Amino acid sequence: MQQPLAYRMRPRNISEVVGQQHLVGDGKIINRMVTAKMLSSMILYGPPGTGKTSIASAIAGSTKYAFRILNAATDTKKDLQIVAEEAKMSGTVVLLLDEIHRLDKTKQDFLLPHLESGRIVLIGATTENPYLTILPAIRSRTQIFEVKPLSEADMQMAIARALADKERGLGDFDVDLDQEAQQQLIYATNGDLRSALNGLELAVRSTNPSEDGRIHITLPIIEETVQRKAITADKDGDGHYNVISALQKSIRGSDVDAALHYLSRLIEAGDLPIIARRLQVIAYEDVGVANPAVAARTVTAIQAALQLGFPEARIPLANAVIELALSPKSNAAITAVDAAISDVKKGATGDVPDHLKDAHYSGAKKLGHGVDYVYPHGYPGDWVPQQYLPDKLMGANYFKPAGNSKVERAYKEQYDKLKKAQRDGLKGN
């Protein structure tokens, strides 16, 4: 049986891993583990197809340890016992345990002593947040690493490598992959390299060669293969980015009809994840404090859309877009936080005032930490003048709302009132 291209192209060592340079690059933590041959159990979490299995395979290949793959949900305790017996015989086994968030207590209890002894190096893979879903006993015995979505450049490199590799890839085929077809393959699979490579192989093997023996992969072939239409077939391959940009700018400019037009183009392309992400950005970046309720309703609409899927997802999405476009606008929040971040980057931080420092430990009072803190809830209006900013930043003013709505005007009035009361109160002290 022919194994899928994504399986065949799994990295044989750390140097062949696509992306994830924050983990496997020179001097980075997993690279250092492999180089020193001091492996510890770990959990890799991130979106599907971003390289969790590949990293595990590369670790095993680089260290020459036996490598086994099991699934926490479907494989049994007996399967784990077989791996444990192999570890006793060979010394060390690298075990990739997929869907580790679904590991039950029986399997966990069996695994723990083997993790403690180092016979089994566990690499757990999950798409879920391990801090919320992984059993504490496992979590405390592992290091947790986030696997990030692959960049477009990472995807391009992996595709080029697969097309050139005669041993494991498609190098025996004479393939012409149009640029716009490659763009759509990357875009439609949304950073999922497994889907991209397997889609590429299907396109190549199902396309008849021309008279000169070359296999020409065009945009329509990729659209058919991945079952997603391109938004536009522009020569630069960035049509989808243009449409996304146009959607945000139309909503920002309060043009409902234009916003619905660009939304429809994204819907027709089947790109629910990017619509969901962009609308949430718009809700908080462009509407923000002018209408905070619309941000919450947008998130609810997106949750509904993701649960429904297309075609029904278009209905809550349309509701969100209409409300966002017609809502008053404010960029005060993003402007404020960016100004604060800018100060931090420039080193304008300063020491936390002593009265705000943590006082929940023995000896804090001797250091003066928390001693003079005044509890606001003990005062009328649950407020009392007190220094919160470091000395270096006294008087800093990041939040500058324009007052484009009743809500934002109320925030502005409250902000100005509290700022003045703070200044006057601190002067009086």
TrEMBL record:
Q: Which domain of life is it from?
A: Bacteria
- What InterPro entries does the record tag this protein with? AAA+_ATPase, AAA_assoc_2, AAA_ATPase_RarA/MGS1/WRNIP1, ATPase_AAA_core, DNA_pol3_clamp-load_cplx_C, MgsA_C, P-loop_NTPase
Q: Which UniProt keywords apply?
A: ATP-binding, Nucleotide-binding
One term of GO molecular function:
single-stranded DNA helicase activity
What residue stretches are annotated with the AAA+ ATPase domain?
38-150
**Gene3D superfamilies from the UniProt entry:** 1.10.8.60, 1.20.272.10, DNA polymerase III clamp loader subunits, C-terminal domain (1.10.3710.10), P-loop containing nucleotide triphosphate hydrolases (3.40.50.300)
Question: Record keywords: Cell cycle included?
Answer: no
Q: Name one GO biological process term.
A: DNA-templated DNA replication
- Family from the record: Belongs to the AAA ATPase family. RarA/MGS1/WRNIP1 subfamily.
User: Which PANTHER family has this protein been placed in?
Assistant: ATPASE WRNIP1, WERNER HELICASE-INTERACTING PROTEIN 1 FAMILY MEMBER
- Name listed for the protein in its UniProt record: Replication-associated recombination protein A
Q: Which organism is it from?
A: Weissella paramesenteroides ATCC 33313
